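Bit of a strange request maybe. I'm writing a small parser for structure token strings and I need a real example to test against, not something I typed by hand. Could someone generate the tokens for this chain?
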Amino acid sequence: MKRVALLAIVLALAAVGCGADDGGSGSATPTDEWAEGYCAAIVDWADELRLATDELRDFRSLSQQSFAQAGDDIRAATDSFTGELRALGAPDTEFGEAARQAVETFATAAKADLADIERAVANVSGLAGISKAVSSITAALTSMNRSFTTMVNSLRKLDPEEELQSALEDAESCDDLGG
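Reply from user aminoacidic:
Good idea to test on real output. This should exercise your parser:
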């Protein structure tokens, strides 16, 4: 049941992403390239999170080790995702730097949420503690979802000409988002 909630959060994160933006190095990235990289990063992240949580699906075979591995995989996937977004730099639009900052704010918040996930995993002692840890992890992923949604909404507000939105709609990798 909690596995379903976790997967729902992952899918919500991916679906929300179709209108978002930016990354993090100092130079501007052509908007079409930025959109491809942005959507590809979201697709990869969602896929990696689904894989990371697959082991949690069957509570009968759940072990402390598999739970810890899922936590490590969530961390690795999110670290990779935020790194990819930052590496995209600012999209080459009038508000590209503000978009880059919105991504940076999300990445910082995601890091704090990952720390909560790592604490929850580290504090598990035996199978009895897994239920409490799943609740903590779900709360951290929900917080990450809110931060992601805030980033997406900020990016939409920064794009009154819908230049980014148009690039995202045209990007082939965004087709894989299904949203």
